[in-house]
Amino acid sequence: MESQVGFSDYDVFINFSGEDTRNVFVGHLYNALKGRGIRAFIDSKDLWKGEDIGKLLSLIKGVKLSVAVFSQRYVESEWCLKELAQMLECHKANRQIIFPIFFKVKTSDVKNQTGCFQISSQMHSEEEPETVSIWKDALRAAGDVSGWVFDDWDDQSELVEEVVQNAWIRLEKVPLIDAKHPVGLRSHVESVLSLLSNTSNSSSMDVQFLGICGPGGIGKTTIATAVYNCIFENFTKSCFLEDVREQASQQNGKISLQKKLLYGISRVKTNICSSTEGSRLIKDRLQNVKTLLILDDVGDHIQLNWLARDLNWFGPKSRIIITTRDQSVLSGVPESNRKIYEPAELNKEESLRLFSLYAFSTDQPPDDFMELSIDLVGTTGGLPLALEVLGSDLSMTKDEGDKLLWNSMLRMLKQIPHDAVFEKLKISFDNLHDIEKAMFLDVACLFVGWKVETVISIWEACGFAPRYRMEVLKRKSLLKIRQLDTWINHKEFWMHDQIRDMGRRIAYNQRPEDPYKHSRLWSRDNIMKVLNGCKGNEIVEALLLKFDVNDSTCLHTKDFEKMPELRLLQVDGATLWGSFQCLPSKLRWLSWQTCPLKKLPDNFYHEHLVILDLNGGFFGQAWNNWHGNKETFIWGNIESWRQIWIPLQQKTHEDDPRGRRYKFPDDDDDDDEIYRCRLIMHVSLGFYHYIPEEIPLEYVKRLSLEVDSRIHHKDERITDCRVGVAIEGIIKLNHLNHIDYIHEFEGFDWFGFQLEGKNAIDIAHDYKGFIENTDIEFTVRGVNLFLVKEGPMFDTHQFSTECHCPGRRFLEIIRYN
C-alpha cells in the first residue's frame, strides 16, 4: 500500500490486535463493510513495514467512524494503544464516532485495566510514563462507551451484521443542504436551540416537542434544516421527513410516510400492512432510543398522530420538531412537553440584503437600482419566500434598459402578490371552513386596523360565532391581533402584507379589472363602477364606501337590489334615498354614519337587519319628532326583538367642568311618546393596571360605584342626588383594564326621582373607586344616558310598550370612542 493516504479515502478505521482477531472476526467484519459499500481500512504488517506510525494516525483523523475490537492480547500491542488514544482524541475534538466491541473480554477489565488489560511496568517499559497514562485514560474512556459484548456462545455472523448496519446508519447521518443565503437565520436557530435546551419539567430526560409555526414562506423549513444540522450528531438516531402534508394527500400516504420514517431511522426497507402496524413499529424501534425527528409541513394533528402520537414512543432526551402553519397540530401534546416558536419577518436591512443576494449576487443593490430595489422589497413585508422569488425573477434583468420591466413588476405587486408566493400562501386558506374563509376575506379586504370588538359584533350579526373562528385563523397564522394602547385596551386586527394581498386576490376572483366579479368591494372607483353600471354583482358579500361631507353623490337603495349576497354595507356620509325594503334580504349590518338627512324617512325599515349604525347623524328629527339625536343610533333585530338606543344630548357644565349635563327631549309635542321609552345609563370604568384573572368572584361582586348627580327640573327647582350603585351581573372580570356596565331604570325613575321632559341632569365624572379587599383602583371614564325604544318588530306608526315577546334579549351596545 502507498504511504500517501488522503483523509477522505476511508469511512471506517478498524483498530484491533491481529494476533487473535484478524482471521477470526475482523476479516469477516471488513468484508461485510466492503460489501455494503463502506470504505474500511484494515492494517497489515506487510503493508506498513518500514512506515512511520504518524501516517497511520493521520489516517485516523480523516475517517468518520472507528471500530475498536478489544481482545485478550490487545494491550500487548503498542500500535493498538497509540491508535486508540488518537481515536479518543478525535472523538473529543471532532465528534468522531467510536464503536467498541468487547470480543471475549469483560467491559470492566477494559475500563479498569484489570485482568488481561492490566498494563504492567515491564510490558511497555520503553515508553514514557505520560504516554502510558494517556493509554490508560483512553482505555477507561472507551470502556464507558456503549458497544457490543461477544462471548463464546454468541453468533458471530449476527454481531457482524448488527455492527455493519449501525455503521451504515451513522455514516448516512450527514448534514442537510443549508440555505443558499442564510440571512437572519442565526438568530432563529439560536432561539430554537434555547427552547430545546430549557425544559420546563423537573427532569432533563423528558421528551420535548417543539413547533415552528407561521405562514407559508416565513422560513420554517429553512430554520428546521439549520437546527437539524446543528444537533443531529448528538442523537443516536435522526430523521428529517419532508412535505408531510403533501405526501399525506397522496394514495396510501399514511403508510408511505411511516415507511419513510422507518427507513430514515434504520436504513432498512420495511413492509407495512396497515397504519396501525406502522405506528407500532415506530414505537418499538424508537421508544428506548434518543431520537431527533423533524416532521416538515404537518397539516393537522391526525398526520402527527400517524408518526409521533405519544411521548412514550421515544427514548429519553428525544426531540421532535414540527413545522406547521397551524399551532393546533400540537394540541394533543402535554403543555409541559411542548414549546412553540413563531419566527418573525426579516427587518428592512435583512430583506434588502436577501433580495440583493438573489437579484445581484451581492449584499447590496447597485446605486442605480437601489431606489427601485427598496420599493420592491417594501411590497414583500419581509417574507423570505417573496424576497427569494422576486430576486430570482429579476436576476436576469439588471441592465439600465430593464428598469421599465422593474417598474412594471412594482406596479403589479402593489395590487396582487407574485404567483409563486400566492400559491404557497393559499394552501392555508384552502383548508379553512367556509365561514372562516368569509371572515378571513372580510379582514383582508375590509377590516385591517379595525377594532376587534366592533368587527366581532358585525360577525355575530351574521351568525358566524366569530370568537372560535378567530382562534382558528390565529392558530393558522392568517390573522393577528395587536394591542396599540395598554390603557384603553385598544385591540385591532392586523395581517402580514402578503397574507392580506393573497386574500384580496382571492376576493378579486383572479380578475382585478372586473369589479362585477369581486366578492368584496372597498375601492371607491370599483364601487361606483358597479353602482353606475346598473348590472349589479351577484357574488359581492360586503361593500364599504365613505363620502366626504361636501360630496354631493346620491345613492338609491335600488342600486343594491342586484346584490343578493350582500350582508355588510357601509355608506357613511352618503345621501341614500329609496325604500329600505329594496336592500338585499341577507343584509345584516348597515353603517350610515354622518347621515346627512335632516329627518329619517318613514319607510326606514328592513326585516332582517341586525345592526344599524347611525353614529354622527345630522338629522334633527327621527320617528315622531324626536329631537336632539346627534350622536349614536343602534338598531338591532335579535330573536324578533328590536331596540333603538337614543343618547341624550350632553355638554360640559360651565359651573362644574368635572361633570356633564344631559338634557331630556321636549315633551310638548307628544308627551306619550317619551313615556313609552325607558332610561338606561351606560358607565365605562377604567383600571390603572391589568385585572389579574385570579380575583375571586366574591370580590368582583363587591364592586360598587358612587353616582353624584344634580337634577334640574323644568320649573327651575334643583335636586341633589348621591347614591351608591352596585355593579351587578358581572360573572367574572376578564384579563382587561376596563369594563362597561349598563344600569337599567324603571321608566324615567332616576334613583327614586321621577324625571320629565325638559329636565336636565348633571353627573360628575371625575371620581375614583376601589375593588373591596384589593389594591385595584378604577376611575369613571365615561357616562352616557340613553332613551331606549323597543318592541317586537315594530314600525314607526305601530309601536306599543304593551307588546311582549318570549325570550326577549337586549342588543349588545356598540361603543364609539
What would you note in describing this structure?
This protein has 817 residues and is of the alpha/beta class. The strands form seven sheets. Strands 13, 14, 16, 18, 19, 20, 21, 24, 27, 31 and 32 form an eleven-stranded mixed β-sheet that branches. Strands 2-1-3-4-5 form a five-stranded parallel β-sheet, sandwiched between helices. The longest helix is centred in the first third of the chain and has 18 residues, at 18-35. The chain is elongated. The model is unreliable at 1-7, 620-642 and 792-817 (pLDDT under 50).
Brief overview:
The protein is α/β, with parallel strands linked by helices and 817 residues long. Helix 1 (18-35) packs across helix 6, helix 2 runs parallel beside helix 3 (78-94) and helix 18 packs across helix 21.
State the secondary-structure class: alpha/beta
Q: So what's the oligomer here?
A: single chain
Largest sheet: 11 strands, mixed
Q: What is the straight-line distance between the termini?
A: 88 Å
The radius of gyration over CA amounts to 38 Å
How much of the polypeptide forms β-strand, as a percent range? Answer: 15-25%
Give the helix tally.
24
Low-confidence stretches: 1-7, 620-642, 792-817
